[in-house]
Design a protein that fits this description.
alpha/beta; three-stranded parallel beta sheet; 10 helices; 41% helix
Length: 279
């Protein structure tokens, strides 16, 4: 039986630690404040934004919500970001992605001050991660490192394979595993003989965006499998990039979907907000 890595329990643990930290900061007269901007009313984005607000409230972080209409221009959005960059009482700024098509996502990410970039998407944050300097780390990969460490899984010296090379998960994930002294291979949709590469992995992180793509044929016996994907299957039930039922008997540890990586993303966002004050 594989160890089921419980993201809900671990994220709760992190939130409790942050709650305590924030209470001590308040006693010392320091408040933490996150500004969340959502443009348009994409239903999935609204759910995420709502969850972020709830997490802030639970931990004791002040949150400012800017719910802007779909018709908001790029100039208006950039002006709001600049205003929040200049405000001393705002520690973190988050623009919920995706933004409407008439707004340049890249320009928006670059407009946020690296000191307030709690999502960890700014080129300066990514560059700092590359060369081992302090800076914000993208929340999902940072959450995966916490899942591994808090589940007692050693990364050092392990063969780690990351399937997926996105700027949000795959690339920062590979850098974080390197930082923990893992031996890292990044594979993707164009990789030749993906099965053979995945089968070498002691730790396999899958963020390929294809439902139940990874079957038992990709798994080395006793591997640790982290599933970043989230999809709805033909019965409208949530599933990941890994075929959980087929893969689980071959693993030493695995994350479920839902309840694995998902809850960690918001916990690490909260962690970044608290760190923004310390930074």
């Amino acid at each position: 039986m594989a160890q089921i890595i419980d993201g809900k329990a671990i994220s709760t643990q992190i939130k409790e630690e942050l709650k305590e930290k924030v209470a001590k900061m308040k006693e010392a007269g320091t408040e933490v404040c996150l500004a969340v901007i959502q443009v348009g009313n994409d239903p999935a984005s609204s759910v995420y934004v709502n969850n972020k607000k709830k997490a802030c409230e639970y931990i004791g972080i002040n949150s400012l919500a800017y719910e802007l209409p779909e018709s908001t221009t790029e100039e208006e959005l950039l002006a709001l970001i600049q205003e929040l960059n200049d405000r001393a009482d705002v520690n973190g700024i988050l623009v919920q992605l995706p933004v409407p098509k008439h707004i340049d996502e890249d320009k928006i990410i670059k407009a946020i001050s690296p000191k307030k970039d709690v999502d960890g998407f700014h080129p300066q944050s990514v560059g700092a991660l590359c060369i081992g300097q302090p800076g914000f780390v993208s929340c999902t990969p940072a959450g995966i490192i916490q899942l591994l460490k808090r589940s007692g899984i050693e990364i050092e010296g392990k063969e780690c394979v990351v399937v997926g090379r996105s700027n949000i998960v795959g690339k920062p994930m590979s850098l974080l595993l390197l930082r923990e002294n893992g031996t890292v291979t990044v594979a993707h949709s164009r990789t030749k003989d993906l099965k053979a590469i995945c089968k070498r992995a002691d730790i396999l992180v899958v963020a390929i965006g294809k439902p139940r793509f990874i079957t038992e044929e990709y798994i080395k016996e006793g591997a640790v499998v982290i599933d970043v994907g989230i999809h709805r299957n033909e019965n409208n039930k949530l599933c990941g990039d890994v075929d959980f039922e087929a893969v689980e008997p071959h693993c030493s540890a695995i994350t479920p979907v839902p309840g694995g990586v998902g809850p960690m993303t918001i916990a690490m966002l909260m962690n970044n907000c608290v760190e923004s004050v310390e930074m």
